[in-house]
Specification:
The complex is a heterodimer of chains A (263) and B (153). Chain A has 10 helices and 3 strands; from the N terminus they run ααβββαααααααα. With 263 residues, chain A is mainly alpha-helical. In chain A, a hairpin with a 2-residue loop joins β2 and β3. Chain B has a domain of 102 residues. The longest helix of chain B is centred in the C-terminal third of the chain and has 32 residues. Classes of the chains: A mainly alpha (263), B mainly alpha (153).
Chain lengths: 263, 153
């Protein structure tokens, strides 16, 4: 009986580490709002840089799978994808990391450490700054829609409060569609009430402008691009998620209109 | 007066795009790119609409112009140009039309709807505008990136 380790099993363990590291990068890219093609390219670059070959990747809305090989050994692994958001700086930092790994010289451990570092050290705007910026964006959006100047401040305030409360609710892990309905109600109510107090003649538009922070513009365009890139399953899933968010958000506006007696 | 309207739309397009850029966690330098993209997109859309184009056609032209501009400025902007073009087009996403469409449908399904025919027609029109405008923005942004595809990741 031999005491030497089984070379095939060792190879599989190493392949598994490569597969899981590449999947983690693909998952993070997807959660940052990257298109499927970008997530797949990033994962494939990492697999190649770590010395294996990427045979295939599948991205669904809630999970991703990868098959990597080295010689005659092949392994397939799956990973769950978390909530989909948009984080441009982390997205591009991960892409740059994938390009560095592809050049060679980094191990699985180095790559994992680098991903940990990017997650913790990539700068983020503070929730207060984001809330203020979103409020200003909603008010500007309102002007583009035809909201009068009297309602401008109300929309700004409603958008900012809506974004800050959304941040708090999402951080507590609440369902994103329920959050969309709740924030739409809060922002539309505040925007409509404030616009009425200010003597605005565009209360309806002010209510709509106040909830524009909820419009999922990036997933809506990603849905089309994914379909054009040859990933209709993910594209369709994104489109359905966009419709769901908008239906829940509109329900919130509808409730706010009833509360304010606006028709 | 037309120029004033154009300036107004471009300015608020820039402000809205930069505001959403903060939400999407763009860096300070990239936020300037988002604002420029937003100003360009809204200026082109406004010029198109002033020329009598439909919202959908004007949005398509604006997205194509923004996509090409960000591609041509790839040298100073780097690979983030695509994302900036997308952020610049966010103020053109017809979220308010979607709301009007759903609210119209809610109104029709009430116990005693008033002017049901007109309300349904308006809701359907709003929904079609959402679909066609979103498709126009998506296609307008995608075409330059496919035509001028680069190898950098």
């Amino acid at each position: 009986m031999t005491t030497q380790p089984d070379p095939v099993r060792l190879k599989h363990r190493h392949l598994e580490q490569i597969a899981m590291t590449a999947l983690r990068a693909a998952r993070l890219l997807t959660e940052c709002g990257a298109r499927v093609r970008v997530a797949h390219e990033g994962a494939a670059l990492i697999v190649r840089g770590l010395g294996a070959e990427c045979l295939g990747l599948r991205t669904g809305y809630g999970s991703q799978e990868i098959t990597v090989s080295s010689g005659v050994n092949t392994i397939t692994r799956m990973m769950t994808v978390g909530p989909h958001g948009v984080n441009h700086r982390l997205d591009h930092a991960l892409r740059a990391m994938a390009a560095r790994v592809a050049k060679g010289g980094m191990s699985v451990e180095d790559t994992e450490r680098e991903m940990d570092r990017l997650i913790t050290e990539t700068p983020r705007h503070s929730p207060f700054v984001v809330a203020l910026a979103v409020g200003v964006a909603c008010a500007a959006f309102g002007r583009l829609l035809g909201v009068d100047w009297q309602a401008f401040g109300a929309v700004l305030l409603a958008g900012a409060v809506g974004q800050y409360v959304r941040h708090l609710l999402l951080r507590r892990g609440l369902n994103s569609y329920v959050v969309a309905a709740a924030i739409a109600f809060l922002a539309a109510f505040l925007g409509g009430f404030g616009a009425r107090l200010a003597g605005s003649g565009t209360i309806n538009l002010a209510m709509m402008a106040s909830i524009l922070l909820l419009v999922p513009g990036v997933p809506a365009t990603n849905a089309q691009t994914d379909i054009m890139d040859g990933f209709p399953t993910m594209g369709s899933a994104r489109a359905v998620a966009v419709i769901m968010v908008m239906v829940f958000a509109t329900t919130g506006v509808w409730l706010a209109e009833i509360m304010l007696g606006v028709r | 007066m037309i120029w004033l309207h154009l300036l107004h739309q471009a300015f608020f397009g820039a402000v809205a795009a930069a505001g959403f850029g903060v939400l999407f966690n763009f860096g300070p330098r990239a936020l300037l790119g988002c604002a420029a993209a937003g100003a360009l997109a809204l200026a082109v859309r406004t010029l198109g609409q002033d020329a009598g184009w439909s919202l959908e056609l004007a949005s398509f032209a604006a997205a194509v112009a923004t996509g090409f501009a960000m591609r041509l400025l790839r040298e100073p902007l780097g690979p983030a140009g695509n994302a900036m073009a997308l952020a610049g087009c966010i103020p053109m996403v017809p979220g308010a039309f979607f709301g009007q469409a759903i609210l119209g449908m809610f109104a029709v399904t009430g116990p005693h709807p008033e002017n049901a025919d007109a309300t349904v027609l308006l809701a359907m029109e709003s929904m079609m505008r959402v679909i066609f405008t979103l498709a126009a923005i998506g296609a307008g942004l995608a075409i330059p990136s496919y035509l001028l595809r680069t190898r950098d990741f």
